[in-house]
Amino acid sequence: MDPGAVRPGAGGPLLVAFAGLPGVGKSTLAARVGAALHAPVLPVTPVERALGRYGLTGDVPEMAAYGAVAGLAEVQLGLGLSVVVDAVNPVAGARGLWHDLAVRAGVPLRVIEVHCGDEAEHRRRVEARLPDERFPTWEQTLVRRAEYEPIIGPRLVVDTAVAVDPLPALLAYLT
């Protein structure tokens, strides 16, 4: 193992689940954590898009995408690797997949909830993305915010509007 790499927990694998609205910086942080842990990063959004290309749209395919990513994560955990999941995780049902997977795999679950405490900055980030079906509009993001269920239980909350690099705190939480 690279001497600069972070060893999760007591040296064993762990499941890291990112949660938060589109445009808050989840994917950027998930990629950085994955690189630091030398762990695969499994984003749900590309799986949702792939299902959509095959005509599978609506609520069921969204949960199917979460289930598919959970299946891939289970394989990686079974190989002894830590896994980083990058997903909105807007409802308890979606987040429950990660809890159940961690229990089945016998690994710790670490939830990282990302938000942008400055609404104007959050909107700027969402609207700065190139118009494309991959990214929701600001109006769609507000709808998701209204549907977002509070996370209950242990987690680290990161505000990406704060001008401090959150990576050291994230890695400390994971080790």
Identify the CATH architecture: 3-Layer(aba) Sandwich
* Intertermini distance: 16 Å
Shape category: globular
Which stretches of 5+ consecutive residues score pLDDT under 50? 1-10
Radius of gyration, in Å, reads 16 Å
- Find the CATH topology: Rossmann fold
Q: Residue-averaged pLDDT, rounded? A: 89
* The CATH superfamily title: P-loop containing nucleotide triphosphate hydrolases
Proportion of helical residues: 40-55%
Structural class: alpha/beta
Strand content bin: 5-15%
GO molecular function: kinase activity
InterPro entries: P-loop_NTPase
Keywords: Kinase, Transferase
SSE arrangement:
Elements: E1 15-19, H1 26-37, E2 41-43, H2 45-53, H3 59-78, E3 83-86, H4 92-105, E4 109-115, H5 119-128, H6 138-147, E5 156-159, H7 167-174
Parallel strand pairs: 1-3, 1-4, 2-3, 4-5
Helix pairs in contact: 2-3, 3-4
Keywords: Kinase, Transferase
GO molecular function, one term: kinase activity
Pfam families: AAA_33
